[in-house]
């Protein structure tokens, strides 16, 4: 079981890198050279939403400092619009600019092309649904393990 478990973690990491490579290829195909695949994925995850950087961090798999850096770059390159909240001047909201919406549509078209290939290939909808269910179970399990093992009170208890 341990070998299988560790192999699965390795495959998840590899899949994530491969997915980012696919986004990079899509950026190249569309002659987008001013942002990277992670930044394009952030744009796609924002979509039509209007979010704070904190909400974006919770929505995606990003570290806070990386999100702030990438948001800054996306604003500088004109893919994001950043505004201070009218209700809370400390809070900054971001949304896609017209340029960001265009790129988001191109990434969405890439996903549509992938779905067409999937429907004609060896992976059917049931297998995708089953994989998603299993991955969500691991997500819940790892969250529970993190809460139990990394919570500051748990660390203080262990040190005593």
Count of discrete domains: 1
Helix fraction, binned, reads over 70%
**Class based on secondary structure composition and strand pairing:** mainly alpha
Total of DSSP H or I helical runs spanning 4+ residues: 7
In CATH, the architecture is Orthogonal Bundle
Strand segment tally:
3
Report the span from N to C terminus.
33 Å
Read across the widest sheet, the strand sequence of neighbours is 1-3-2
Q: Order of helices and strands, N to C?
A: HHEHHEEHHH
The coarse overall form would be globular
Strand % is 5-15%
Radius of gyration: 19 Å
> Residue-averaged pLDDT, rounded?
88
Please describe the biggest sheet, giving its number of strands, its sense, and whether it closes into a barrel: 3 strands, antiparallel
Topology diagram in text:
Elements: H1 2-29, H2 37-46, E1 51-52, H3 53-59, H4 64-76, E2 80-84, E3 92-96, H5 98-120, H6 125-150, H7 152-159
Antiparallel strand pairs: 1-3, 2-3
Protein described:
This protein has helices at 2-29, 37-46, 53-59, 64-76, 98-120, 125-150, 152-159, and strands at 51-52, 80-84, 92-96. With 160 residues, the chain is mainly α. The protein has one domain (2-121): Orthogonal Bundle (Arc Repressor Mutant, subunit A), CATH 1.10.10.10. The chain has a 3-stranded antiparallel beta sheet. Helix 2 (37-46) crosses helix 4 and helix 2 (37-46) packs across helix 5. It is globular, with a radius of gyration of 19 Å.
């Amino acid at each position: 079981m341990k070998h299988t478990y560790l192999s699965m973690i390795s495959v998840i990491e590899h899949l994530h890198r491969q997915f980012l490579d696919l986004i990079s290829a899509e950026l190249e195909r569309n002659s987008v050279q001013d942002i990277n695949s992670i930044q394009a994925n952030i744009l796609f995850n924002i979509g039509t939403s209007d979010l704070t950087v904190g909400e974006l961090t919770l929505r995606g798999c990003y570290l806070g400092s990386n999100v702030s850096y990438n948001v800054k770059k996306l604003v500088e390159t004109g893919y994001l619009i950043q505004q201070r909240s009218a209700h809370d001047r400390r809070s900054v909201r971001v949304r896609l600019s017209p340029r960001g919406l265009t790129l988001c549509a191109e990434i969405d078209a890439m996903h549509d092309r992938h779905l067409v290939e999937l429907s004609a290939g060896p992976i059917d909808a049931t297998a995708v649904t089953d994989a998603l269910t299993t991955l969500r179970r691991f997500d819940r399990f790892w969250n529970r393990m993190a809460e139990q093992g990394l919570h500051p009170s748990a660390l203080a208890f262990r040190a005593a």
